[in-house]
Amino acid sequence: MYPTPPQGRALLEHCRHARYVWNLALEQWAMWTRDKGPTPNFVGQCRQLTETRASFGWLRAGSQTVQQQALRDFDQALKNFYGGTHRRPKWRRAGVNEGFRIVGGQASRVVKLSRKWAAVNVPKVGWVRFRLSRAVPAARSYRVTCDRMGRWHLAFAVVPPPIPAPGTGEVIGVDRGVAVSAALSTGELLYCPASSERERERLKQLQRRLSRCRRASNRRQRVKAAIAKLYARTGDRRKDWVEKTSTDLARRFDVIRVEDLRTAQMVRRPKPKPDPDRPGGFLPNGRRAKAGLNRGILANGWGDLMKRLEQKAAGRVEKVKAAYTSQTCSVCGYCASENRESQAVFRCTACGYRANGDVNAAVNIAAGRAVSARRETPPRVSPKREPQLATSV
């Protein structure tokens, strides 16, 4: 979206009102006790909003449609949370969660100005121009958001249809990694574009400058905007790569098999280890190395790629257990940790098969249940080693 300066200020006011109403509803729900009776529902909170708007002029100057929709979104978030499909609602922060949603007749008031431009009518803002990236769908709601760079975006609430299967019967295995973003069982190695050396050096300089800026100063705001611009540029590249890769895989293959990885749990911080010899002290827990691994996982878009594959190839994505896929030979089935010489080299100590480590894992993932079936039987023993017999006590 490309609002004029007055329209941009009006949109920011809508974002502030929506964020304030959301946080107020969240605070009311979080601090409600049993002795107060049932928690107010959406209808009760709308009555409270009407009374609040009558008392405070700064809130009354905003759009009631935007504020009521924030309450409706919070009510739906609670239903999703209690239904077990979504996480607990969180607080919305200024500069991070800037946006609001419009539902109703206003959503259909979109005028096409030219082949690439159109305008949408926002309550109490007027007609705002936006760039057409695709045809405007027949939606009854739209969401206006502002990222950390200050760019405005307009998204219509329409679920696109999934990509149809090609009908060739081909199966693909995808191995996600840090050094190689996605390795395919066909031998292809896909890399998610990362920041350049110049951008990383620029980011380091800006972060040092930010540490010397005074709080709430204009210079600090400019430096933060410059840092946000670098992060947004990297995020745009990652999203573009995820969209193109997921679309290509959904169009080329009938069945897509990936590792069953819990990305959200994998990127969590390690828990502190108390030192029993020093009360109040802690033992090293490898948090610096874990932080580097977390950055690598997030930078390669593991979760985004999986999410978009499930949406575009609905019903055609299968999850395979990730255990032993990188240590198992895709030719003879022998499994040993010595097979993986390094991150990139796989050499089977039983049959001598050599291949790229990530591609070999992707072939095992493409085999699907056959890999799991190998774990039910004793693994083959290398002819260079004697089997170790278990002794009973």
**Nearest-angstrom radius of gyration?**
27 Å
Provide the succession of SSEs.
HHHHEEEEEEEEEHHEHEEHHEEEHH
Q: Helix content range of the residues, please? A: 40-55%
Helix tally equals: 11
Largest beta sheet: strand ordering = 9-8-7-10-13
Could you give a short account of the major beta sheet?
A: 5 strands, mixed
Give the number of DSSP strands: 15
> What share of the residues does DSSP label as strand, in percent?
15-25%
How would you describe the shape? globular
Secondary-structure-derived class: alpha+beta
Poorly predicted runs are: 375-393
- N/C terminus separation: 74 Å
What would the average pLDDT be, to the nearest integer?
88
Domain count: 2
How is this structure best described in words?
With 393 residues, the chain is an alpha+beta fold. It has two domains: 5-156, no CATH class; 171-273 and 285-320, no CATH class. 41% of the residues lie in helices and 16% in strands. The chain is built from eleven helices and 15 strands. The protein has helices at residues 5-30, 42-55, 57-60, 64-83, 197-212, 218-252, 263-266, 287-299, 302-312, 357-367, 369-376, and strands at 98-103, 110-112, 117-122, 126-131, 141-146, 152-156, 171-176, 182-184, 189-190, 255-259, 273-274, 282-283, 317-320, 345-347, 354-356. The strands form five sheets. Strands 9-8-7-10-13 form a five-stranded mixed beta sheet. The protein has a three-stranded antiparallel beta sheet with strand order 1-5-6. A three-stranded antiparallel beta sheet has the order 2-3-4, with no helix packed on it. Strand 11 and strand 12 form a beta hairpin. The longest helix has 35 residues, at 218-252.
